[in-house]
């Protein structure tokens, strides 16, 4: 009896040095707005999104400089292959990164991913021909295990009552990245032509006209990598008994068998798989839109485009970024609480259809009217897209336990990346 009183509970002993349990204690002690957590997730997602989206404004001109297209109308076809190579390669490794994150912790995967992207993104900016560009984009995709791991990490470092805000932060950061990335690419690509006083034609950036945006993004990613050394680890490895399901303590150690059975059932988890299926279809549409929008905007008016420069495209996408940030972080958690993620996603999907149908008519306008309508349409499209992706992410993470979230998000990223790979290739082909 004395020993029972003097011995702390088994769970308490294991919690003492458990990173995941420290996170739980930190979450329990915090109240109010989780600013630190928002900044962490925001920075990590931007590192993923910027390399994906930054090339859209200048991809047309990059392919043109490679002299791989025999006719001008064929440029979109080749641009689609460069855009899709990233997603196709990421689909091969997403599950692997998810399993590694479940096994060794999210933080290690996040640090490896950001470090690899620093190098691979610079190599892409140094591309001198079409096949080198495709290869470097594929390398970027293979080494990028960030977005699925970040989603799992976000759901674990935010309190339970802030889960909508957590995944809204991921989706909003993704949406802002799809705005900031093209803006960076548009303003920084071909600097020797735009800013000859700063970058002479015989300088490094004159010889490699698309290096500067890649270098800028790598510097941002390097800063995030260094800062991420101090982010908290959310869980132990899967071998630690503290990460085992609670039922193992009560049943006398059957946690390993329960976990193996649960992991084998991920593909039979219908709430998870149904959310992933819808997410895949949405991802195909969203990625095709991102590529087609920029190609359409910079294409000559004689081919049905708007005749914009890369700077013009960057300006349009920059304007919608601030509005997306303010509206999504404030509006989505409220809407999700009132309506639920399913209803919000359905409404956003329904509103997207007439919005996209109106785009072809924008080429009938010019000047200020065109810029105003295009900025409004771009902002609304981004808000609707982020609302859909946030709702689906919430459904995915609620469908599995914590120790399965890395693998579940890895499966989602694999399937999504395959569909996103089809998006740029198909979108580029449709522009011909």
UniProtKB/TrEMBL annotation:
<feature type="region of interest" description="Disordered">
    <location>
        <begin position="237"/>
        <end position="257"/>
    </location>
</feature>
<dbReference type="Pfam" id="PF07690">
    <property type="entry name" value="MFS_1"/>
</dbReference>
<dbReference type="GO" id="GO:0090333">
    <property type="term" value="P:regulation of stomatal closure"/>
</dbReference>
<dbReference type="InterPro" id="IPR020846">
    <property type="entry name" value="MFS_dom"/>
</dbReference>
<feature type="transmembrane region" description="Helical">
    <location>
        <begin position="39"/>
        <end position="63"/>
    </location>
</feature>
<protein>
    <recommendedName>
        <fullName>Major facilitator superfamily (MFS) profile domain-containing protein</fullName>
    </recommendedName>
</protein>
<feature type="transmembrane region" description="Helical">
    <location>
        <begin position="109"/>
        <end position="128"/>
    </location>
</feature>
<dbReference type="GO" id="GO:0009705">
    <property type="term" value="C:plant-type vacuole membrane"/>
</dbReference>
<keyword id="KW-1133">Transmembrane helix</keyword>
<feature type="transmembrane region" description="Helical">
    <location>
        <begin position="276"/>
        <end position="298"/>
    </location>
</feature>
<feature type="transmembrane region" description="Helical">
    <location>
        <begin position="134"/>
        <end position="153"/>
    </location>
</feature>
<keyword id="KW-0812">Transmembrane</keyword>
<keyword id="KW-0813">Transport</keyword>
<dbReference type="InterPro" id="IPR036259">
    <property type="entry name" value="MFS_trans_sf"/>
</dbReference>
<feature type="transmembrane region" description="Helical">
    <location>
        <begin position="313"/>
        <end position="331"/>
    </location>
</feature>
<feature type="domain" description="Major facilitator superfamily (MFS) profile">
    <location>
        <begin position="37"/>
        <end position="432"/>
    </location>
</feature>
<dbReference type="GO" id="GO:0022821">
    <property type="term" value="F:solute:potassium antiporter activity"/>
</dbReference>
<feature type="transmembrane region" description="Helical">
    <location>
        <begin position="75"/>
        <end position="97"/>
    </location>
</feature>
<keyword id="KW-0472">Membrane</keyword>
<feature type="transmembrane region" description="Helical">
    <location>
        <begin position="343"/>
        <end position="362"/>
    </location>
</feature>
<feature type="transmembrane region" description="Helical">
    <location>
        <begin position="165"/>
        <end position="188"/>
    </location>
</feature>
<dbReference type="InterPro" id="IPR011701">
    <property type="entry name" value="MFS"/>
</dbReference>
<dbReference type="GO" id="GO:0005886">
    <property type="term" value="C:plasma membrane"/>
</dbReference>
<feature type="transmembrane region" description="Helical">
    <location>
        <begin position="368"/>
        <end position="395"/>
    </location>
</feature>
<feature type="transmembrane region" description="Helical">
    <location>
        <begin position="208"/>
        <end position="231"/>
    </location>
</feature>
